[in-house]
Specification:
By secondary structure, this protein is of the alpha+beta class. The protein is 57% helix and 18% strand. The protein contains 6 helices and 4 strands, in the order ααβααββααβ. It is globular, with a radius of gyration of 20 Å.
Length: 194
C-alpha cells in the first residue's frame, strides 16, 4: 500500500509540477501578506491604545484620522505593495471599496451569515485572487476585520456624545457606525502588481 501511495505522489509531481509550483508561490505570497498585515495591525493597535489611555475614544479618532493613513503608507512602502482598509460602511470616503473589494466583502458577509459561530468568522475570512485590470495582472488579497468590544466605542450603536461630536468633525460623511460585537466591520486589502 505504501508503494502505491508513494507512486501516486511521485506521479503527481511528474505530471503537474506547474500546479504545485503555483500553489507554493501562492502560499509564499499569502504568508507575506499575512505577516505584513500583522505588522500593520500591531502598529495600529499600539497607536490606538496609547491614544485611548491619554484621552479616551475621542482622542483615538485622531489616530484613525491622521496616523492610520501614515502607518498604511509606511507599511506599503516597506512591503512594496499597497496595503489599505475598506468597508461596505466606510468612515473615510477614501477607503470606499472598489468593485472587486465590494464583491469580496459581500462574499464575506454571506459566509458569516451561513456560519453558526458568527462571532468567530471575521477572524478566519480571507480571499486571494489574481485579477487582470486594464491589461495588467495583479494579486489581490483581503482579510476580514471583525468588530471587537473596544471597537464599539466608536463604531457601535451606543456612542458617547463627545465621540459623536469628534466623528462629525473628522468624518462628516461617516457611515461606519451601528455595528454589533462580532460583525464584519470591513477588511484589510492588498494589491500587488505582478
Amino acid at each position: 500500500m505504501k508503494r502505491v501511495v508513494l507512486t501516486f505522489a511521485l506521479s503527481s509531481l511528474i505530471f503537474s509540477p506547474q500546479s504545485l509550483a503555483e500553489e507554493d508561490v501562492k502560499n509564499a505570497f499569502l504568508a507575506t501578506y499575512r505577516s505584513t498585515l500583522g505588522e500593520l495591525m500591531s502598529e495600529l493597535k499600539s497607536e490606538l491604545m496609547a491614544a485611548m489611555k491619554k484621552g479616551g475614544p475621542a482622542n483615538a479618532l485622531e489616530v484613525c484620522s491622521t496616523k492610520a493613513p501614515q502607518i498604511s503608507a509606511k507599511i506599503s512602502k516597506q512591503a512594496g505593495f499597497f496595503v489599505g482598509r475598506t468597508s461596505l460602511k466606510p468612515r473615510n470616503a477614501n477607503n470606499a471599496p472598489d468593485d472587486w473589494e465590494k464583491k469580496v466583502l459581500n462574499a464575506f458577509e454571506k459566509s458569516k451569515a451561513r456560519s453558526k459561530a458568527k462571532n468567530e468568522v471575521p477572524k478566519t475570512l480571507e480571499f486571494f485572487e489574481v485579477v487582470e485590470t486594464d491589461g495588467h495582472k495583479k494579486r489581490r488579497y483581503m482579510k476580514a476585520i471583525g468588530t471587537g468590544g473596544v471597537c464599539l466605542l466608536c463604531h457601535g450603536t451606543n456612542i458617547s456624545p463627545d465621540v459623536k461630536t469628534k466623528l462629525k468633525e473628522l468624518y462628516p460623511d461617516d457611515t461606519a457606525t451601528g455595528f454589533k460585537f462580532g460583525d464584519l466591520r470591513g477588511a484589510f486589502s492588498i494589491t500587488d502588481n505582478l
